[in-house]
Specification:
eleven-stranded mixed sheet, alpha+beta, two-stranded antiparallel sheet
C-alpha cells in the first residue's frame, strides 16, 4: 500500500504528463477491445440472425444489398418477384420453413414489413403484448417503434410510401395495432409487422408480389446446388445468406485490421512515453532513492516503488478503456445500423479482454525494468554526495 501511495504521489506531481500517457494508452486498448467486440459480436449476431435461412429468393441485384434489406432490414430491397415464379421453386421437397416477405411502406421512418405467420414466429425469444395479426391491415409494432412514437394497442395509423416519409401517404388505408412485440434481437423491435395481404391491399394497383422469400434447407447437397439451379433457370436471384455473411465478415475484418494497426501504434507510443516518464522521475528523485537504500531498503522494495507508478498508469488506462467501452455500447445506435446492434451479452463478454489485460500488465512491468536496472548501476553513495 505504501508503494502505491508513493506511486500515486509521484504521478500526481506530473499529473498532466501522466494523464496524457494514460489517455494514449487507453485509446490503444480501446481500439483493440472494440475491434474484438465488433468482430466476434457481429459474427455471433450473424449466426443467430441467419439461423434457419439457408436460401433467399429475391429480385436480381446485389446479394449483399438483398441480405441487408431482407434479413437485417437496413437497406433498400433489390425489387419484387412474382409470387407464381417463387412458389414454383418453393414446392421443392427439400425447402422447409418458408417465410414470405413484402416491403413497400414505412411508418415515421420505421419499415412496415408484410410477412406470414412463419416470419413472426421465427422471431427469437419474443415477448408479445396483445396478439398477432389475424387479418389484413392489422399490425404488431416493435417495442422500440411503440416507445418512440407512443403507439399503443388499439391505435390506428397510415403508412408512407417507400422507406422515407416524404414520398406520399396512404391516408385512405389505416393500420390497426393489435400487438406490441419485443425481442432480444434488436432489429425486430424496429419493425411494424403485418400480413402480406395488407401490403397488397395498400398497393392495390400492383400485382401481388413478394419482396423476398427465406427458407431452410436440411439437405447439404440441395443447399449447395439449388441456388445455382434457380439462378440459371429463372429470373429470380437465389442467395446463400451464409456465404454472403462470410463475405461481409471478411470486409469487416479488413477494416478491423486498420483499426488494430492504429491501436498498436498508440499502445507503442504509450509504452515509450511511460518508460521515459519513469526514467525522468528517477533522475529527479535519485537522492531520495539513494537515501532509502542507505537506510536499509532492499532493491525489491525500491522495485515496488518504481514499478508501482507504471501499474497505477495501467490502472488509469484500463479504467478509461472501460469508460470508453461503456460510452460506445450505449451510443451504438448512433453508429451502427439497427440490424447490426450488439447485445449486452456479446459486448460485455470479458473473455474478449484477457489478451489486453495480459498485454497491459506486461507493458507496465517491461517499461519499468530498464529504469530500475539503470538505477542499480548508479553508485548511490555518489548520488548522496553530489546532491
Amino acid at each position: 500500500m505504501k508503494a502505491l501511495r508513493f506511486a500515486f504521489k509521484a504521478l500526481w506531481s506530473r499529473k498532466v504528463s501522466s494523464l496524457f500517457i494514460g489517455l494514449i494508452w487507453a485509446m490503444g486498448l480501446l481500439g483493440l477491445a472494440t475491434t474484438q467486440r465488433l468482430e466476434r459480436g457481429m459474427e455471433a449476431q450473424l449466426v443467430r440472425t441467419l439461423e434457419g435461412s439457408d436460401i433467399m429468393l429475391c429480385a436480381k441485384g446485389s446479394p449483399t444489398q438483398a441480405i441487408l434489406a431482407n434479413i437485417f432490414h437496413v437497406d433498400q430491397a433489390t425489387g419484387n418477384i412474382p409470387t407464381d415464379e417463387a412458389e414454383k421453386w418453393l414446392s421443392h421437397p427439400d425447402i422447409l420453413h418458408v417465410r414470405r416477405l413484402a416491403y413497400g411502406d414505412s411508418y415515421r421512418g420505421s419499415r412496415i414489413l408484410g410477412c406470414d405467420s412463419a416470419t413472426w414466429l421465427h422471431i427469437p425469444a419474443f415477448e408479445l403484448e396483445g396478439r398477432w395479426p389475424e387479418m389484413a391491415m392489422e399490425v404488431v409494432v416493435g417495442s422500440h417503434v411503440a416507445e418512440k412514437h407512443g403507439v399503443e394497442i388499439g391505435d390506428e395509423f397510415h403508412g408512407s410510401h417507400g422507406t422515407v416519409e416524404d414520398m406520399g401517404d396512404h391516408a385512405e388505408h389505416h393500420y390497426h395495432v393489435v400487438g406490441i412485440v419485443q425481442s432480444p434481437e434488436l432489429h425486430w423491435n424496429e419493425l411494424v409487422l403485418t400480413p402480406l395481404e395488407s401490403v397488397w391491399a395498400v398497393h392495390e394497383e400492383e400485382a401481388r408480389n413478394y419482396t423476398a422469400v427465406l427458407a431452410r434447407i436440411d439437405q447439404a447437397m440441395t443447399r449447395l446446388m439449388l441456388p445455382g439451379q434457380i439462378q440459371r433457370n429463372s429470373p429470380l436471384m437465389a442467395v446463400s445468406p451464409a456465404m454472403e455473411a462470410n463475405r461481409m465478415v471478411g470486409w469487416m475484418n479488413q477494416g478491423g485490421q486498420v483499426i488494430e494497426a492504429m491501436a498498436w501504434l498508440l499502445t507503442a507510443i504509450a509504452f515509450l512515453s511511460m518508460a521515459l516518464l519513469l526514467h525522468s522521475h528517477l533522475r529527479e528523485r535519485l537522492p531520495e532513492y539513494a537515501l532509502l537504500r542507505a537506510m536499509g531498503g532492499t532493491w525489491g522494495q525500491i522495485a515496488a516503488l518504481v514499478l508501482g507508478q507504471n501499474f497505477v498508469l495501467a490502472l488509469l488506462a484500463v479504467s478509461l478503456t472501460y469508460l470508453g467501452l461503456a460510452m460506445a455500447f450505449w451510443s451504438q445506435g448512433a453508429w451502427l445500423p439497427p440490424g447490426l446492434l450488439l447485445l449486452a451479452s456479446d459486448w460485455w463478454n470479458l473473455q474478449f479482454d484477457l489478451f489486453w489485460w495480459a498485454l497491459t500488465l506486461f507493458l507496465a512491468l517491461f517499461a519499468g525494468i530498464g529504469p530500475w536496472v539503470w538505477l542499480q548501476k548508479i553508485p548511490l553513495h555518489r548520488a548522496l554526495v553530489d546532491h
